[in-house]
Predict the structure of Leukocyte cell-derived chemotaxin-2.
Amino acid sequence: MRRVFVLLAVLCVCDGVRFGQLCSGNSANSQRTSDKWGRGNYGARRGDRLHKGLDIVCSDGSIVYAPFDVTLNGRVTVYNDPTKAAINSGINLSGQGLCFKLFYVQPDRTSGMVRAGQRLGVMLPMQSVYPGITSHIHVQMCDRSDPTSHF
Ligand SMILES: *[C@@H]1O[C@H](CO)[C@@H](O)[C@H](O)[C@H]1NC(C)=O
Ligand SMILES: [Zn+2]
């Protein structure tokens, strides 16, 4: 009986996956609200498109951490625009049954696994491309669904 109870408790954890700390200096995973470049919420307007991710505050040069145990699925190219080359990198990750990408991160490695709370890489110099923006990591699910409930 007791064994069955423990098993059920473990299964239920999968339901509400929460991201652990992503960026040094932001232990609460605070979200970008509003600045002169726009808003950080999922679904915010970006000209004639919608923002398909959630922005988590992260100062340029900060250390970026694995939010839980993750597998590295390779580097992501964020832009085609050469004027944004300084921040044109990210990483595709999976873990806890989720597949997601982190934009504006220079990854230390692009394959293998990283444990929860261990270093993934460094936040790129976003102020050099978007002066005055709230520097942030963009979290985007691989299926473009809304990640907000995981924060
Ligand atoms: C991320 O990596 C996964 C696993 O390799 C892959 O299936 C998926 O297509 C990649 N997603 C994107 C959007 O790049
Ligand atoms: Zn974003």
